[in-house]
């Protein structure tokens, strides 16, 4: 029988057998599954890292606001307990008159509340940081150490300021949000003592 021209098979040019194709497909499938698992792992790590960075940014912004308020405390008393603190913050927009500010824990968030200075203004509440399960404020009273409330009980110290205020936040875990505690100690400025009017005991002569 004469072979048909163009259909003759030369040595070494045979195609793959069925078994070879099955083995090749199996190997390709294993490589694809391993590659997919690697990609999913990389994406998971990236998402977790992004969540941690976002959480870190939220913490830094919240602590910046708290520190800024305390460093600009204005004249007047400071009232605080372990759960919250209230004071007046220097406000240039109000002619330097102190604006009442308070910090509390509300609905799992550190909340900053600005009380109105001008009649007719609305109370403004700002959710500074979510995912907070507990907050503790403490007040440094010189050599007496840390107190859980302020002012001291002595009647003549009701308008005194603590040397520093310590705030500790307990964070709740969540997606990309690890649990833990964050602590910040802020040294308060030295109170400005205004001279008493002439004729009052302890006043400084002009």
Automatic annotation (TrEMBL):
InterPro entries registered for this protein in UniProt: N_methyl_site, Pilin-like, T2SS_protein-GspJ, T2SS_protein_J
UniProtKB keywords: Cell inner membrane, Cell membrane, Membrane, Methylation, Transmembrane, Transmembrane helix
Any one Gene Ontology cellular component term annotated for this protein: type II protein secretion system complex
Organism of provenance: Sphingomonas prati
PROSITE patterns linked to this entry: PROKAR_NTER_METHYL (PS00409)
Xref: Pfam families: N_methyl (PF07963), T2SSJ (PF11612)
UniProt keyword Lyase, yes or no: no
Record-level GO BP terms: protein secretion by the type II secretion system
Name used for this protein in its record: Type II secretion system protein J
SUPFAM superfamilies assigned: Pili subunits
Localization in the cell: Cell inner membrane
Electron transport as UniProt keyword: no
Record membrane topology: Single-pass membrane protein
Highest taxon in the source lineage: Bacteria
Family in the record: Belongs to the GSP J family.
TM segment ranges: 21-39
